[in-house]
Amino acid sequence: MDEKINYQTRLKQIEELLMSERGFVFEVPHDENVMTLISGGLDSSLIPDLIIKEWNVHVYPVLFKRGQRAEKYEEKAFDFFVKFYKERYPNKIADPIKIEASIPPKEVKPYVSKERLNMLGHRMRNSTMINYSIMYAGALNDEYNLDIRTILVGSVADDVNSPESGLLTLRTQNYSVCEQTREWNWQITSPYTEPTIRQRPLDKADLILYAHDNKIPLENTRSCFSEYEIADGTCFACVKRLKAFDFIGIKDPIRYREVTQNER
Ligand SMILES: [Zn+2]
Q1: CB 192 within 8 A of CB 154
Q2: For residue range 214-231, what is the model confidence (pLDDT) as tens digits?
Q3: What's the gap in Å between 209 CA and the centre of ligand 1?
Q4: pTM score of the predicted model
């Protein structure tokens, strides 16, 4: 079968399963508590602003310290934006949590091919973080009688068909989480691409414009995967980021490392 038709068919099937069990695929969590995974990158760092404006939610920010090369720079960006949004939206941002969990397990890392890593990242990385977030949100709900049922990630339009963060992937995990917890209210999605609320999924260029219009300091985001403090400009994340800035004709405010032609 044509791959695209097959994708749409499977998406429809998963959504029908969710519909038949609970009567909705996604409900806007107006005024609810929501959990948001923030890596400090351009995409995820804007989520709190957008969803507080659009949905008036209370945000639980989560950072993963998973042993990634850029961990300390991502953490710095995360800390910056938690503080920034706490000041911009008093009482709308919960104290953040940093989950320390090696993803993949450190015993596995020596065997991961560099080529795969640079192109696709670690297998099951995003879904593992989402599963941990479900554990955390569920525990908060139990302990404090909260209503967190929405876990948000920063997938953008370019990610829609990607195996790691595409819509079908999020829907499939959403169904799996509901089935495994027997809690049918969970919803896992991206506020940028959720098709029940966006006629057109937002892409990275849309987010840059959004940040510009809403005075969100993108110079404090960290996208680069490298271990360098100054972005290398050559990794997968940098390339996508620079392409989006280039597309809309705005200069990326972060600094990039000067690299020689040989290194490129
Ligand atoms: Zn980079």
Answers
A1: yes
A2: 999 999 999 999 999 999
A3: 21
A4: 0.94
